[in-house]
Design goal:
With about 290 residues, the protein is an alpha/beta fold. The chain is built from eleven helices and nine strands.
Length: about 290
């Protein structure tokens, strides 16, 4: 059934997406409270009317991302290359020319599923994505096939360090969705993100310094329906020493991500409970 849906033209699928939008926004009201709360706290300068409009536009965008993801089952590499344009691939290619492994930090903005798959057809080196396997066996296998059908590889999150040790020195880019909420047990880096305190994973610093990896910020922007552009920005050169307990890569990522969100708030994944963890309060000395 999913393959039958994916075989439909995108123009038809966007009609299906509009039905999803009505269902999610007005019938099921999928995580509506989370979406509105996230938007309200991230944009305190906006009125309730503006927040409600952003929420509606987000649900429409989210519904379109769902059908675009399903369409990966039948999209050819050539069509994906036409629909996702890498504006400055040379940012990565110059690192590849030196035989480097590069960390690409991305987020749940635009269409994150199309970034990995399009990178596999745009770039000269291999592309791997770090991901968290799904608990449902059917959807885990289905999404694995979607994400790898253009040549990209997948690395389970728990195997990232082992994979990098095993393939040390290989010319490739490793993509990480780095905007997820890090819990207290993850020893997060705390900073201000969209007017709120947020904890971020610090794996970028640990991996980049241990394996001398350059780090690149990967942003994907919707140009129009079904068409995106990817813009790359250097965050770290892979060799400059980073002092202990310092997180310049993560802080730079947060600043870039916030700029991406402010340029197009509708395209971020507001259903995600990004700010669910709170910074631990230090005990007051007697």
């Amino acid at each position: 059934m999913l393959l039958a849906i994916a075989s439909l033209p995108l123009s038809v699928l966007y009609g299906v997406a509009y039905g999803f939008y009505l269902l999610l926004a007005y019938v099921v009201r999928y995580r509506h409270r989370v979406v509105v709360q996230n938007l309200r706290k991230s944009f305190p300068e906006k009125s309730e009317t503006e927040i409600a409009r952003l929420a509606q536009q987000f649900y429409l965008h989210f519904s379109q991302v769902i059908v675009e993801t399903l369409k990966l089952a039948t999209l050819s590499g050539e069509e994906l290359r036409r629909r996702v344009i890498f504006r400055n691939p040379e940012v990565l290619e110059r690192h590849f020319a030196k035989g480097r492994t590069v960390l690409g930090l991305s987020s749940h903005a635009g269409n994150w599923e199309w970034v990995l798959t399009s990178g596999a057809v745009w770039l000269s080196a291999h592309v791997d994505g770090v991901y968290k396997p799904l608990s449902n066996v059917f959807f885990e296998n289905y999404m694995y096939r979607l994400r790898t059908r253009t040549g990209a590889g997948l690395i389970p999150m728990r195997d990232t360090l082992r994979d990098m040790i095993k393939r040390k020195g290989e010319t490739r880019v490793i993509s990480l969705l780095s905007d997820q909420a890090a819990g207290p047990e993850d020893r997060p880096y705390w900073t201000t993100f969209m007017h709120q305190e947020a904890g971020f994973y610090t794996s970028a610093e640990r991996l980049a310094t241990r394996f001398n990896c350059p780090v690149v910020y990967v942003s994907i922007h919707r140009v129009r329906r079904g068409h995106y552009e990817v813009v790359l920005s250097d965050l770290y050169d892979g060799s400059t020493p980073i002092p202990p307990d310092s997180y310049p890569i993560t802080e730079s990522f947060v600043q870039h991500l916030e700029q991406t969100i402010r340029e197009n708030p509708v395209a971020y994944l507001w259903t995600h409970r990004r700010w669910k963890h709170k910074r631990p309060v230090a005990p007051i000395a007697n």
